[in-house]
Write a structure and sequence with these properties.
The protein contains 2 helices and 12 strands; from the N terminus they run ααββββββββββββ. It is mostly beta strands.
């Protein structure tokens, strides 16, 4: 496992750097060396920016307007934020497991939970928007928003024949695109 440094976040060399947030730093491990490109100069030792001992830390999401990164500890139902401008980090949600989330224009987060999705407002208020979406799912697992504001939300099924992919439109309509995915993971455009 590898700890994430503030420098890693600020460099933002793509999704791979952001994914380093997922590892946590369980059991007091020392940070690994920062990998660098051959053209980069030698760097100093990494600086740990957050250590929440995530059980399943995933879904790093960068908010360019607020210069912040968010990530979830799925199994423990926690969501975190790190402000790259100030260096401040904090838990911002604790509750039902969050398999994925998307950033809304106003800075709120759309959380995809066990069999529901909710909006986490900037003031910390949580509002359930839809539930009972699919009784064959264990939980939502991976989500991605497209440039039009639609969200594609994949699930982990209760067995290999279940699970699916859902489309949530900006007006809140939920449509099943297909079933039988088993586990949706790693969605991208």
């Amino acid at each position: 496992m590898r700890c994430v440094t503030r420098r890693d976040v600020l460099r933002l060399v793509g999704a791979a750097s952001m994914a380093r947030l997922c590892g946590g730093c369980a059991n007091g491990e020392k940070p690994a060396a920062v990998s660098r490109r051959p053209s980069e100069p030698e760097t100093t030792a990494p600086e740990i920016i957050a250590n929440y001992h995530c059980e399943i830390g995933e879904n790093p999401l960068w908010d360019d307007r607020r210069q912040a990164v968010y990530w979830t500890d799925i199994a423990r139902g926690r969501l975190f934020r790190y402000d790259a401008r100030t260096g401040h980090h904090e838990p911002i949600y604790s509750g039902e497991p969050v398999g994925g989330f998307t950033l809304q224009r106003d800075g709120s987060l759309l959380l995809f939970q066990v069999n529901a999705f909710s909006i986490l407002r900037l003031d910390g208020a949580l509002e359930r928007l839809a539930d009972g979406i699919d009784d064959d799912m264990q939980r939502f697992n991976d989500v991605i928003a497209d440039p039009e504001g639609r969200v594609y939300a994949g699930t982990i099924g209760k067995n290999n024949e279940s699970g699916g992919l859902y489309l949530i439109t900006p007006d809140g309509a939920v449509r099943n695109l297909f079933k039988g995915t088993g586990c949706s993971n790693g969605m991208a455009f």
